[in-house]
């Protein structure tokens, strides 16, 4: 909101500097977003002078030497001047030594061609008031000699652009802000006085201009007031009014309209003036619009109205979208002579909905939707009538028409001053608290209680509906007393049980691990497009992730995976030739599981193996097993041992993965899911990535991370050597090695019994081809046996190993390779 | 005899210098201790040694033999070491770059988040998580936000369709799902399950329906803090934020509390800071956080005793702080993930 200092000065004596006012506004809660000087800036040291004599300069043809009076009691000055448009006796602005003119032009006493000049007589341009640089600015009105030039040109103003928080509609006006500044600076607040008092008795004569005013939408419009003025002279506004409106960026229109705008910005109450002649049927009705009803608003746009919207209509059609904007049809213009002035209280919610729905916000709707002062409705109308009579003339007819009642506002808060001090945490005296509250026009009363004590009761004025309970008053005290008075103190810190959520701990460990493995962390958007989702999944399952109000079609869905974002990162880095190939991301993803969406805690990484890698020495490129190793490790950091889980191929519906080079463990429906391996070549082609991409995903439901990992308990181990035996098996080619290994482990455990243990079965060779039967592959395992209490003897190991070989031959379809 | 032995040993020592390979060694051994070797021959001459000298000569010959054997094993060790070294190939050029990948890096936003968390951990806060998809209740209602508050507008807040069903984000009633606009919702969830006293911070991703530009991003990150205990005051709030800002921005940093408005705190403030760091940027004060005393209505919503307890909450944008700390002028850098950007923060 724009605030003019000159305007504010009508209600409070602001002699503070613009900087001090700016700081005050900021410190009492109105952030200053901009500050603009207009008109003549503050120019100390520039005064009105009179040329007493002028003589040619002894050493320069074009210069003259003047004797200038700068006020009674001041010494006359000798000033060298280059202008010629003045005559002796003229009054002109004189900048005395020490003055600084716009453009940082410092005035000094100096010699010009051998003659001392004690100041400078100024042109309009030098002062910044006109564009005339030709000669001196002759002050035709002949102001008193010695008058500061700022008093002659009162147009100088500083306009602030302040942010008013939504809880403070009372400050959407100059008077409201003046009240705040007056409270802060400890000064008096002067309300504009009313001269044309209205006498309610005249109400009987109602009906001269209007036969009737009815309010049908009484819930949304609890109070509607109308006033009639006849014989108005609609004309351009006087200069002061135009200047006031212009200072806050408004365009003057005509005196009546300008007055309604002026009062809106003065008191915060929106008003509307109708041309009485344009009210059809001499009737005003406040009603809801009919569905599809049309109106051309003042911004020249035709708007279709809906039932929920309130309008002010005559007997035929809507004239105003209530509280939002008038129509071109009922505007007051040069031809108007009789007007009807409206001042009303509209329910904030109603106006807000209408304004949003029409996409139309105005100074008026902005205030109504935040809530105007119910008790200010009448005062604002009277203020406007006062100005209309003064500026546009006319006669008030038939007193006032009031439909409905002023919404009741009764707010009394019992305030324990100790409560204020406790919440503040520092000492503030009773008198200070009382003074602060009273400076904001709250009424503070001290009531004696029966037990010889007393209690404070604070009565809240109708424009402060934001003040509801004691804590609200604490804020007022802190605000006006000054936040700079909050003392410094040490941090209050007592021991408290509680650890970081394990989800937080895991995510931190995951990042540290991946960073240690040369990955760079990325942050991508949580939104992806529908087209991409369909590309990644052959089925259509996108609807459950769809936002109802996306900003754009490429950000229409919640992300279901971190991999597409990471691919974008690979593509960007590839295009920019940065050389980045290893990236990871942590973040929330969203997965549909049986008709419900689950929010998951995900970690994913990608490794790009460029097809055109050139380096003096190359390693084997990352492959499926690189991804598997990382994924399994990440899972361990989360407390899950994937080695104990079944690993299987990625289902065909997830077409992003390269068949035969990718796998998954777990399923999100059970709380944890991983995928790992190589991305599909066809997909990479679409991303224009020439090479292979290895990646991994670990997704865990957050609720599965709500635990404190148990502290490990030490288990003693054997100090005796292990005995090892190797066995090679021909197994079906499609059999998973892990299945074979587990089977071998089971058989082995049985064979050793309780005497000693088969500690480990490790696969060390995979072979198929020459010498291996068709459809089979050879898997070679090393078995290690160990006892807790002794070195194992050859024969007991051999016995166990023979038993294992026997059982494998008898109980499995595997054949032992001899 | 003794003389001969000495001469064999001396020649052997000289000859050893020429032994470079296993073949050399074999030939060398054969020359000395082979069937026709010099020492073998000498030993064969034992038969001719007078009986009384035999023990002494025998001892000397044995000593000589041992000396040669240790010479051989020394030579073998040397050969083996040479062979291992030879298998390595030519010496490396230590200035060549390693093919094993450069340093990894945590994202600057993650680093700043972690740094902020650490500062608060030191004074007894723990870190809690909450869902990004939220409901109107946790994001607005419980936070004392009126039902017609503009923050709830479709224009500002992302909603999910009425039909959306979330398996692991609980709803209060039948309210709509949305993407949280602040992490204050985590405080509500935390207070609902934890009795006071409470001291937590909740970092996380938030969403606002903003078109991306240099200072806006549709998703961004916040850290919210909550402190509830008996008689917590504005003074305590200032003490904590002063401590935080000085730890993060230097001992000379100062704070300024500007009264502001948030529905869930009263009084509410925006916090500016000023430090010598900023003078270079030509500005006095920079906004860094919002905060206030928790509104009693919020305590009512979570079942805390509003008479007994009071508390404060604060929140700040991680992007904003990262931009201040690192001198980044456009928020979009954070979401492009150009490795030249990410690597600047590798540490």
How does this structure look, described?
With 818 residues, chain A is of the alpha+beta class. Chain A folds into 6 domains: 2-39 and 157-185, 2-Layer Sandwich (Phenylalanyl-tRNA Synthetase, Chain B, domain 1); 46-152, Nucleic acid-binding proteins (OB fold (Dihydrolipoamide Acetyltransferase, E2P), Beta Barrel); 200-404, Phenylalanyl-tRNA Synthetase, Chain B, domain 3; 412-485, Phenylalanyl-tRNA Synthetase, Chain B, domain 1 (2-Layer Sandwich); 502-705, Bira Bifunctional Protein, Domain 2 (BirA Bifunctional Protein, domain 2), CATH 3.30.930; 723-816, Ferrodoxin-fold anticodon-binding domain (Alpha-Beta Plaits), CATH 3.30.70. In chain A, 25% of the residues lie in helices and 28% in strands. Chain A contains 20 helices and 39 strands. A 7-stranded mixed sheet of chain A has the order 27-30-31-35-34-33-32, with helices on both faces. In chain A, strand 25 and strand 26 form a beta hairpin. Chain A starts with a strand and ends with a strand. The model of chain A has no long low-confidence stretch (mean pLDDT 90). Chain B is α+β, with helices and mostly antiparallel strands and 347 residues long. Chain B has 2 domains: 2-87; 108-345, Bira Bifunctional Protein, Domain 2 (BirA Bifunctional Protein, domain 2, 2-Layer Sandwich). In chain B, 39% of the residues lie in helices and 19% in strands. Chain B has 12 helices and 9 strands. Chain B has helices at 2-16, 22-33, 38-44, 54-87, 108-121, 136-139, 184-193, 234-249, 276-279, 296-302, 318-326, 339-342; strands at 126-127, 133-135, 177-179, 198-207, 219-230, 254-262, 265-274, 286-294, 309-317. A 7-stranded mixed sheet of chain B has the order 1-4-5-9-8-7-6, sandwiched between helices. A two-stranded antiparallel sheet of chain B has the order 2-3. In chain B, helix 5 crosses helix 11. The longest helix of chain B has 34 residues, at 54-87. The two termini of chain B are 75 Å apart.
């Amino acid at each position: 909101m724009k605030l003019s200092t000159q305007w504010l000065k009508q209600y409070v004596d602001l002699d503070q500097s613009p900087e001090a006012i700016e700081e005050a506004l900021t410190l009492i809660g109105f952030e200053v977003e901009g500050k603009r000087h207009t008109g003549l800036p503050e120019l100390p040291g520039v005064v009105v002078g009179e040329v007493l004599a002028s003589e040619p300069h002894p050493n320069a043809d074009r210069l003259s030497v003047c004797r200038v009076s700068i006020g009674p009691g001041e010494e006359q000055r000798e000033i060298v001047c280059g202008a010629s448009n003045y005559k002796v006796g003229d009054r002109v602005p004189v900048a005395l030594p020490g003055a600084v003119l716009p453009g940082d032009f410092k005035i000094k006493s100096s010699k010009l061609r051998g003659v001392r000049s004690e100041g400078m007589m100024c042109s309009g341009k030098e002062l910044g008031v006109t564009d005339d640089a030709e000669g001196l600015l002759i002050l035709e009105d002949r102001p008193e000699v010695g008058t500061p030039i700022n008093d002659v040109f009162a147009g100088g103003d500083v306009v602030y652009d302040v942010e008013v928080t939504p809880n403070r509609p009372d400050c959407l006006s100059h008077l409201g802000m003046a009240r705040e500044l007056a409270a802060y600076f400890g000064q008096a607040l002067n309300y504009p006085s009313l001269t044309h008092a209205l006498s309610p008795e005249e109400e009987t004569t109602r009906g001269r201009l209007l036969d009737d005013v009815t309010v049908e939408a009484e819930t949304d419009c609890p109070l509607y007031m109308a006033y009639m003025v006849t014989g108005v002279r609609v004309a351009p506004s006087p200069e002061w009014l135009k200047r006031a409106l212009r200072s806050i960026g408004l365009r003057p229109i005509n005196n009546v309209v300008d007055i309604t705008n002026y009062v809106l910005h003065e008191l915060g109450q929106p008003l509307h003036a109708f041309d009485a002649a344009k009210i059809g049927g001499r009737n005003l009705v406040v009603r809801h619009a009919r569905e599809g009803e049309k109106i051309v608003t003042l911004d020249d746009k035709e708007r279709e109205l809906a039932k929920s919207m309130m309008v002010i209509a005559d007997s035929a059609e809507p004239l105003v979208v209530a509280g939002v904007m008038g129509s071109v049809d009922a505007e007051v213009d040069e031809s108007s002579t009789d007007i009807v002035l409206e001042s009303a209280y509209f329910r904030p919610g109603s106006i807000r909905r209408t304004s949003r729905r029409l996409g139309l916000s105005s100074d008026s709707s902005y205030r109504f939707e935040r809530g105007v002062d119910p008790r200010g409705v009448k005062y604002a109308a009277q203020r406007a009538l006062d100005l209309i009579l003064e500026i546009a003339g006319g006669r008030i007819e038939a007193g006032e028409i009031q439909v409905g009642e002023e919404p009741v506002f009764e707010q009394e808060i019992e305030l324990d001053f100790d409560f204020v001090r406790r919440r503040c945490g520092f000492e503030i005296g009773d008198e200070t608290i009382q003074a602060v509250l009273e400076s904001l026009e709250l009424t503070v009363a001290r009531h004696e209680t029966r037990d010889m004590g007393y209690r404070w009761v604070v009565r809240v004025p109708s424009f402060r509906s934001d003040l509801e309970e004691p804590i609200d008053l604490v804020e007022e005290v802190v605000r006006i007393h000054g936040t700079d008075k909050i003392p410094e103190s040490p941090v209050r810190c007592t021991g408290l049980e509680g650890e970081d959520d394990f989800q937080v701990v895991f995510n931190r460990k995951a990042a540290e691990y991946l960073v240690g493995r040369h990955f760079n962390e990325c942050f991508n958007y949580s939104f992806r497009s529908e087209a991409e989702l369909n590309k990644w999944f052959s089925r259509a399952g996108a609807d459950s992730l769809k936002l109802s109000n996306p900003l754009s079609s490429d950000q229409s869905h919640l992300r279901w995976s971190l991999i597409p974002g990471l691919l974008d990162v690979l593509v960007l880095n590839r295009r920019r030739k940065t050389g980045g190939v290893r990236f990871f991301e942590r973040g929330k993803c969203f997965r549909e599981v049986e008709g419900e969406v689950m929010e998951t805690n995900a970690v994913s990484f990608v490794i790009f193996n460029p097809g055109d890698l050139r380096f003096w020495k190359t390693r084997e490129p990352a492959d499926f097993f690189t991804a598997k190793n990382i994924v399994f490790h990440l899972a361990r950091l989360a407390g899950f041992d994937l080695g104990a889980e079944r690993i299987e191929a990625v289902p065909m519906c997830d077409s992003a993965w390269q068949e035969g080079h990718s796998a998954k463990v777990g399923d999100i429906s059970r709380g944890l899911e991983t995928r790992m391996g190589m991305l599909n070549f066809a997909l990479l082609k679409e991303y224009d990535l020439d090479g292979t991409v290895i990646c991994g995903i670990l997704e865990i439901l957050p609720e599965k991370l709500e635990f404190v990992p148990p502290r490990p308990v030490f288990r003693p181990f054997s100090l005796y050597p292990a005995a090892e035996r190797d066995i090679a098996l021909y197994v079906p080619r499609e059999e998973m090695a892990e299945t074979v290994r587990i089977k071998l482990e089971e058989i082995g455990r049985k064979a050793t019994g309780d005497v000693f243990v088969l500690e480990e079965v490790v696969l060390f060779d995979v072979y198929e081809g020459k010498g291996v039967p068709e459809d089979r592959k050879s898997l070679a395992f090393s078995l290690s046996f160990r006892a807790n209490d002794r070195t194992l003897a050859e024969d007991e190991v051999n016995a166990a190993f023979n038993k294992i070989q026997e059982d494998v031959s008898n109980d499995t379809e595997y054949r032992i390779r001899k | 005899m003794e003389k001969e032995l000495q001469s064999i040993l001396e020649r052997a020592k000289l000859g050893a210098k020429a032994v470079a390979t296993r073949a050399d060694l074999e030939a060398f051994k054969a020359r000395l201790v082979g069937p026709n070797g010099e020492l073998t021959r000498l030993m064969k001459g034992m038969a001719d040694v007078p009986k009384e000298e035999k023990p002494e000569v025998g001892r000397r010959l044995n000593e000589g033999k041992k000396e040669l054997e240790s010479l051989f094993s020394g030579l073998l060790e040397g050969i083996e070491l040479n062979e291992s070294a030879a298998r390595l190939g030519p010496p490396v050029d230590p200035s060549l770059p390693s093919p094993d990948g450069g340093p990894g890096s945590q994202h600057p936003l993650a680093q700043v988040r972690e740094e902020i968390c650490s500062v608060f951990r030191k004074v007894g806060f723990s870190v809690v998580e909450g869902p990004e998809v939220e409901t109107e209740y946790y994001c607005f209602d419980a936070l004392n936000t009126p039902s017609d508050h503009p923050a709830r507008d479709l224009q500002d807040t992302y909603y999910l369709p009425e039909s959306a069903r979330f398996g692991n984000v609980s709803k209060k009633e039948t309210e709509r799902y949305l993407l949280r606009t602040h992490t204050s919702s985590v405080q509500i969830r935390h207070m609902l399950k934890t009795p006071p006293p409470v001291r937590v911070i909740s970092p996380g991703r938030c969403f606002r329906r903003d078109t991306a530009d240099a200072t806006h991003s549709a998703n961004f990150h916040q850290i919210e803090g909550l402190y509830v205990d008996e008689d917590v005051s504005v003074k305590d709030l200032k003490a904590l934020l002063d401590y935080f800002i000085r730890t993060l921005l230097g001992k000379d940093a100062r704070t300024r509390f500007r009264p502001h408005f948030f529905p869930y705190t009263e009084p509410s403030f925006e916090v500016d800071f000023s430090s010598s760091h900023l003078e270079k940027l030509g500005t006095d004060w920079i906004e860094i956080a919002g905060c206030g005393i928790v509104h009693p209505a919020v305590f009512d919503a979570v079942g805390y005793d509003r008479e007994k307890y009071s508390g404060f909450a604060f929140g700040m944008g991680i992007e904003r702080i990262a931009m201040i700390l690192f001198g980044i002028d456009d928020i979009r850098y954070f979401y492009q993930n150009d490795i030249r950007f990410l690597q600047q923060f590798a540490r």
